[in-house]
Amino acid sequence: MERSEILDVVMRQVAANTHLPEGTTIDPSRSMLEQGIQSLDAVEITHGVVRALKVEMPVAEMTRLRTIDQLVDLLHRKIGAAKSEKRWWK
Predict the structure, then answer these.
(1) What is the C-alpha separation between 21 and 52, in angstroms, rounded?
(2) Measured between alpha carbons, how far is 70 from 76 in angstroms, rounded to an integer?
(3) Per DSSP, what are the bridge partners of residue 67?
(4) What is the 3-state secondary structure (H, E, C) of the chain?
(5) pTM listed for this prediction
(6) Do 25 and 64 contact (CB within 8 A), yes or no?
(7) CA neighbor of 39 nearest in space, from 2, 64, 6
(8) CATH homologous superfamily of domain 3-89?
(9) Tens of each residue's pLDDT in the chain, 90 residues
């Protein structure tokens, strides 16, 4: 899965799980907290993305994420690693 596809899934979860004013622009490289995304919203966003992408992620990894870019990069690595493991076994 391409990084841009993962970012799209994450941004849909941001829209669905935050109470930001309509038209608010989110910068994936800035801290979610600085942009008005509360910690509970960030947890909901992460859980929604993990469910949507069917990826396993320990809670400890989730709590370290500060930006959307960090979340997307972590998911991109996990999805790539999972695909590599599947190819190795086949």
Answers:
(1) 24
(2) 10
(3) 31
(4) CCHHHHHHHHHHHHHHHCCCCCCCCCCCCCECHHHCCCHHHHHHHHHHHHHHHCCCCCHHHHHCCCEHHHHHHHHHHHHHHHHHHHHHHC
(5) 0.85
(6) no
(7) 64
(8) ACP-like (1.10.1200.10)
(9) 999 999 999 999 999 999 889 889 999 999 999 999 998 999 899 999 999 999 988 888 888 899 999 999 999 999 987 766 655 455
Q: Residue 24 in contact with residue 36, Cβ under 8 Å?
A: yes
Tokens found for residue 40: 């509970």
CA-based radius of gyration for the chain: 13
**Which residue has tokens 């941004």?**
11
